[in-house]
Every structure is written in structure tokens, then in C-alpha cells.
Amino acid sequence: MAHTTPGGTHRRERSARRALRREAPSTVALLADEEDFAAMRRYASFAFHDHGAYLRQVEGLLRALASQGVHTAVALFDPAEYEEFCADFDLDPDTSTARTRYTAEVAAAGPTVTYRGQPLDQLVHGLIGAAEQQATWEYATALLSRAAGCGCPDDPGRTAFHRGQAALRRLLAAAGPGRHHLVCSVPASGAPLVAVVHAQAAEQGPAEVDRTEALIFSTVLACGIATSSPGGVVLRTTAPGGRDTVRGWALHQGRLRPLSEAEVFSAYCTDADTGEPVPPEHGVDYRPGLPLPGPDDPQSEGQEPADPEGE
Fold this sequence. Notes:
The chain is an alpha+beta fold and 311 residues long. Helices cover 43% and strands 18% of the residues. It has nine helices and ten strands. The protein has helices at 6-22, 34-40, 51-67, 79-88, 96-105, 120-148, 156-175, 211-227, 261-268; strands spanning 26-30, 72-76, 112-114, 178-186, 193-201, 208-209, 232-238, 244-252, 255-258, 284-286. The strands form two sheets. Strands 4, 5, 6, 7, 8, 9 and 10 form a seven-stranded mixed beta sheet that branches. A three-stranded mixed beta sheet has the order 1-2-3, with helices on one face. Strand 8 and strand 9 form a beta hairpin. The chain is elongated, with a radius of gyration of 25 Å. Residues 296-311 have low confidence and may be disordered.
């Protein structure tokens, strides 16, 4: 008859707990900048006094979780939002319990970046970019909703969004093979709305596009279409073994008009803040915008446009 020692039982229990720990994902909410870190120092229960040391401890925690096989998402910790959260739920903000609950319920619901062993500065850069994307999408969606109104099938906001999707699909098709960087800018109150799409296209098949980037780009472009704003799109293409090529289009009466070579050069070689000319980049060719085949209104085709990824 087999005999189980207490030590063997404890080892099996620890092994089972480690296996179970790998099944439980984690979220770490990060104070990315000095100002947010300083705001949290007013709480006595917040144990850190130096931002650099805090970031090193966070990185150590992320590495420890990764070594255990734990999937970890990193979010931004917003002190102002945290204070509002504690007031709404009558929580004492000067407790680790409140900070943990905020991370689980609020920060984890916002933009996050998965930790895969990348350097912390790279992770923070990606996290701030994700937060900016989220803010752009929320603002663009609100503008589009105000321009829309009825919510019916022929709602102008819905139609504009479909036209934005179709225009992105045609831009990518016209761009051809290569690595593409598209920027859409539409005037808005305050700072302009700006959306970016990175795409990779082979000789055959549709371009590979990040779904979130495509959604935000289509929404921002739709705002320009719905409001007849004088926005525009710039496309920069890097072909294998070749020079970079820059092309552009201007939004005119809700449609993308190809810019001439001179217009592209002028737009790309002018400082947006001062209006002063800037020297052209070395190794970059400025070319006219390509005609986009077919109307950019999907209803004229009898169907809604496909997803930019071709799905």
C-alpha cells in the first residue's frame, strides 16, 4: 500500500496552486508619469516615494508574473478617475483595497497592453498610444452621433461610417504592395482628430490591417464626411528595396479628392504650426494621390462594404 508523506502532499498542493495561478489572468494598473505618481503620494497607504524605483518594482512584478505563466494586462492608473470612483462607491481612497478594486473594475475595462517581456518604456509608449486611440475613437463617435440623429437604417451617421470604411478599403487597394502608413486628419473643436492605420500588403490578397486602427480611422474619416469638413488623408508607402512614396487626398464635399504632386509636396513640407516651409525628407518621393475607383458610397454598390481586412 502506497504511503503519502505530509511533505509530498504539500508539494502536490503547491504544484496545483501554481497550475491554477496560471489560469487566473492579472491586470496591473501603472502610474506612467511623474504627475500621476505625485498625486498618489498624498495617500499614506501608497508605499512608494520615488517614481523611478516604483517603475523598477512594477517591471519586476511583471517579470515574476510572466515567469509563472500568468497572462498580464497593463492599464493606466488615473488618479482623478480613481478619486471619482472611490466617491461614487463610498470607498476610502487611502487603502490598497480601493486601489485594487479600481484596477479590477475601471482600469481593466479601458485600453490595455499585454505584457510579453517588452522593456517598460516600450510598454508605456504602447499604453499611452492605446489610451490616445481610445480617446480619439470616443470623441469621433460622439461627433458622429451628433451629426447622425435618427438611428434609422438610412441614418446619415451610419451612411458616413460605411463610406469611411469603403474609402479605407479603396485606399489600401490603390496603394498596392508594400508597407503603408495612412494618416487621416479632420478638424474639430480644439485639437484636430487624427487617426493612423499601419498596413502590410503583399502582391496578392488583401492588406493586413489592425482591426482597432481600421475602426478608428473609418470613424474619424466618417466625421469628416458627415460634417463636410476639409480634412485629408496622407499615405506613405515603403516598398521592398525602394524609396518611400508619399501621396495625399483632400476631403471635399464628403469625398476624397486626389491631391496633385505639388499639393502633396506643399502639405508635407510645411510646418503645421507655423506655416513655414520645411525641407523635404531624403529618400522620399512626393507623388499625386491616386484616383479611388468607383464611388465611395457603399449604398451605390447595393451592399455595405467589407471589413478592411476582407472579412
